[in-house]
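Homework-ish question, so no full write-ups if that breaks the rules, but can someone show me the predicted structure for this set?
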Amino acid sequence: MTAFETILEEGTSNRTLATDVTKAVRSSLIMRPIYELPTRIYRQVGQDSEPNLLEHVDLMWLAFATLDIIAELTEYQVGASRTEILQHLFPLAEAQLQAQQIQVPPSVLKNLLGKVFDHLVNRDNRYLPFTYRFYDGAQHQFHTRKFWLIKAVYTGQGKESFFALTDEGYVAYFGLHESSALDAAAIGNLRIKLLIERGNVDDALTATDQNRKQCLRKSNEVRDVRRSIERNIQAVDFRHINQLADEGADQATQIQQESGRLHHLVLDNLDKNSDEEELRYKLQQLAENLEQLNIQQMKLVNQLQKLPDDFNDHSHKLFRRRSIGIMPAMDTITRRLFATPEAQAAAVGVEFIARFDPPLRQPLFDPGSMIDAIDRALERQNASGDIYQQVEEEAAELIEYFQPELNDELMGEALKLLFNAVAGEPVLLSQLLTQATAPLTPLADKLQPLLPVAMAMQVFQCVVDHRLAEKYHLQIEPQADQHVRLLLPDGRLYRGHELLLTSTHPSIFSIATDQA
Amino acid sequence: MTYLDEDSFQQANRLIYLSLIYSNGNRRALSQYMEEMTELLQKFRSSEPFQQLVEAGLKAMELQILTITSDGLRLSARHANSFFATTLTDYGKMLARSDNKAADLLCVHCAIATALFPNETDLDAPVEDLGVVMVEDIIQVLRRFADQEQKLPAEDDILDPQVRTAAQRIRELPEENPDSKRAGAGASWLALINRVLEHLVSTDYLLAFEDHQEDVIEYRPTPAYQAALRQAAVYAFHHFRNVATGQDPQLKTPGTGPDQESESPQLTEQPETEVN
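A: Not a homework solution, just the prediction itself:
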C-alpha cells in the first residue's frame, strides 16, 4: 500500500485542502475515459465515413449504457462477449436516432458502437489499463493511476473473450466514490426510503435494481473465497473469513431488515393509494422487487455465515503431515516473488528459466550444412538464368593452385621404369631404387633427383591398394629380416623393409613355367 | 566395476550426449539407444570413478543433474550464462513472439507450480496423486497473488513504495486479449500461460491430455518437472531471502551459481535447511 493510499484510508484525521483536492482528482480520473470518448472517436473517424452521425448520437449515454449492459449480463454469467454487448446496445442507439428521425444503414451504426466499445476496453492500447498522471498535492509528487473500466476475464469457455466490469467500472457507473458492495447497498436502501417518502416511485424502482446488482457483486466475492478454501486452504486467511462473516453478516442482516421495513412501507403506501391505477401498478412492482431483493440478501447472509463453516470443513487440510521442511512451499515462494521489484524479478527469472528448463539443443557449426546451403544458393541463382549479371573486370591476382612435385610425367616415367625392371625376373626394391637414381635414359635436370621418390611412391601405392597392384600385375612380398637404408639423390633417406617385386603378368608367368 | 577402463571416457561423454537428448524430451530420437543408455546408467550407478568422470564432463559443459531416472539423467543448465541455457529468445523462437519479459514468465512459471504443488509435501509426493491442472486454475492463482503483495503487513514490506513490483507488472496486463491472433497484439495472462505450458509440454515436463468432450486441456506433471522445480524453487527462494536481507551475491557476481548446485547429483536427497 503506498503512502498515498494510506492517506486515503485514514480519512478525516488529517484532512487538508491538498488531500481533499487530490482525493477528488483521483476519484474523478475514473470518469476520464468516458469523457474522452467523443474526442477519441472524432479523431478516429476522420473525414471519410458518415461525418454527421457523431453529432446526432450521445456517445456518453452509449458509454454508460455499455457499462450497464455489462453489469446486467454479468449477473448470471462470468463475463459478456463483445457481440452480446453490442447486440444489446444496438436497439438503444437506434432509438436515439429515431428520436431525431435520422436514417442510417445498420452497418454504420454498428461500426460506431464497436468503436465506443473498443475505446472503453482500451483496444488501441492492447487492452492494457487506462493510465493517467495526477498531482498529489499533499506529497508534492506526481502519481499514475492505472485502471480498467471493462476488463477481459478468462473463463475458458467458448471461442470469444468475455468482459466484465472492474470495481472502477462499477464506481464509474454508479457515480459513487469508491465503496464496498454492502455499503453501496445500504446507501441504496436509504435512497429508496427517501424516494418512496417523497412519492418518487420510478426512481425507487431503479434504486432497488442497483441494490440487486451490489448484492450480486458481494456474492461473487463470497463465491471466489469459497473456491479458494476448497482448492488451497493455506492461501486463505482465517481472520479475513471471520471478518467477512462477522461484519458482512451483521451488515447484511441490517440491510435485510431495512429492506423488510421498506417492503412494509411500500405495502402501506399501496393500501393508501388504492385509487390511482398507474401508481398502484408501480408500487406493486416495487414491492415485488423489494421482496426479491430481500430473498437475495437472505441468501447472501447465509453464504457469508457459512464461510467459517466451509473453512472448518476443509481445515483438516491445514494439519496434513508435513515433512521436515526440505523445501519451502511454493506458496511462500510465489508470495515473495510477486513482491520483488521488477528488475530483480527479471534477473531471477532469467536464471530460474535457465536452471529449470532442460538444456537447449544448440546448433553447432557444421561445414556440411554450410556447403549444402551454399550449393542451394548457387542452384537457385542458376535456376533463374534469365538474370544476366554483368561481370566487371577487375585487376585481380591469379589464384595459385597447388602443384605437386611428383607430377604425372614423373610418375609415368617411374611406372615405365618399374615395368622394365620387373618384366624379366623378380627384383628387390633396393635394386629398383638404385636403377632409378641412374636411369638409362636421363631425364630433365629438375625431374632426375625426384625419380627414385616417384618410384618408391609407385611401389607404396601398390602395397596399400591391392587393386592397383592387380592392375599392374605386380606381386609384392616383404623380405623378412632385411631392411633398406638408402640415401636418395635429392637428400631424402629411404628406410624400410626390403620388398621383393614379382610380375604376375601372364606372358612373364608363361616364360617362368616354360623355364621350369 | 570400480575401475576405469579405456572406454570410460568415451562412455561418459556418450552418457552426457544421450542424457541431453533425453532431457529435451525427444523420446523418438532416444528409443534406438535405449539399451546403450541402460548399460551406461548401470555403470554410472555402480562405478564411482565413472560417476566422477561424468560429473566432470557435465561441469565442463556447465550442466547440472536434476535427477536420475531409470531412463537417463535429467539435466539442466547450471546458470543463465551457460552455453546450453534456455533463454527468452528460445521462448520467442518457439512461438514467433519476441515480447517475453523474464519477470512475467517467472511469475507464470511459479503460478503453474503453485497450482500443481500448493504444499511443500507435494514436491515429494508421487506425481499420480497430484491431479491435473487447467488454465483456469493458473489464472486463479495469478489473480490471488497479483493483489497479495499489496496486502503484506508493513514490516514485511521490503520495498520502497516507488519501486514497481513483479506483481504490478502482472496486474497491469489484461487476463485475455481478444486480438491475440493479430501481430503485435501484446501480452495477456492467457498468452503467457499458454506460451509457458506449450514449452513445458514440449520438454516433457508436463503431459497434456485433451478431453475432447469439453475441449479443455488437462496438464499432468511428470517426475522430471517435480525434480526440476525442486531445484529451481530452492534457488528462487534463497534468492528472495537474499533480497529481503539485503545481501545479494547473485546479482553482484553474475555467472557464479550459489554453492548448493555445485555438488553431487544426490543433492536432491540432501536436506536443505528450513527457511521461513
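Now go work out the reasoning yourself. Hint: The first helix of chain B runs from residue 8 to 23.
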